[in-house]
Design the sequence.
């Protein structure tokens, strides 16, 4: 499955979400590639230290994306792509391959209105590909007292973008985790709520990934088979 975290608006939480998702999937036992498509390399530098067994590739041009992603698919269960903040052509290339597009969006009316412009390439890809990728918006950096306003819901509805029920709250832990080469769920127990919300969000977005019994059982069987051949 190719998952693209995209929004051509900068600073909305793409790298934070993509890096966390890659590490989360890896910890569930999946084979994961993090494809960092942003020349700032924020998510790949962070995850190389925080979750060193996640394979990392870097694609900085649309051609690199178009040619590289199908290669990775052969050896990975999930390829999580961290989209760039500006180069829309690279995002466009990502969406030609993606099965799922996750679109983080800050929870303000201005941001919700800008979403139409910043996600036009999502709808273009869906039209060309006659359906895929599935796309879902995730409200990020949501304040504690936030209430989803009707205006914001209307903006998402007008774009025909489903909004994830779980939001990502504005919390220092998310900003601190990369500097400490860690992930929010490995931080002190004070960060329990961050750990819980991100796990809930990922389970909502990719429910099949969390079916660890199936994954665990398949892995255990494969190991048994390999051992019995020795
Ligand atoms: N939920 C959050 N709470 C607090 N800070 C956050 C949260 N999510 C992200 N941040 C911080 O906000 C900044 C922007 O986040 P991030 O780099 O993930 O956005 P981005 O969309 O990838 O940006 P760019 O478009 O520049 O690549 C970073 O400093 C990050 O640590
Ligand atoms: Mg980024």
Sequence:
């Amino acid at each position: 499955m190719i998952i693209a975290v995209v929004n051509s608006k900068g600073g909305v939480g793409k790298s934070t979400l993509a890096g966390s998702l890659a590490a989360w999937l890896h910890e569930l036992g999946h084979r994961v590639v993090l494809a960092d498509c942003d020349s700032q390399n924020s998510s790949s530098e962070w995850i190389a230290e925080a979750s060193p067994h996640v394979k990392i590739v870097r694609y900085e041009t649309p051609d690199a994306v178009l040619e590289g992603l199908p290669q990775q698919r052969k050896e990975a269960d999930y390829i999580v792509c961290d989209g760039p903040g500006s180069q829309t052509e690279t995002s466009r290339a990502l969406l030609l391959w993606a099965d799922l597009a996750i679109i983080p969006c800050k929870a303000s009316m201005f941001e919700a209105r800008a979403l139409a412009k910043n996600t036009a390439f999502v709808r273009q890809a869906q039209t060309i590909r006659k359906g895929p990728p599935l796309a879902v918006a995730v409200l990020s950096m949501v304040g504690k007292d936030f209430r989803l306003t009707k205006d914001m819901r209307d903006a998402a509805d007008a774009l025909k973008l489903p909004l994830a029920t779980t939001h990502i709250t504005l919390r220092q832990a998310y900003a601190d985790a990369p500097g400490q080469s860690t992930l929010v769920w490995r931080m002190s127990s004070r960060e329990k709520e961050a750990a819980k919300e991100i796990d809930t969000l990922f389970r909502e977005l990719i429910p099949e990934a969390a079916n660890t019994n199936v994954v665990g059982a398949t892995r255990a069987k494969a190991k048994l088979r390999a051992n019995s051949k020795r």
In short: The longest strand covers residues 100-106. The mean pLDDT is 90.
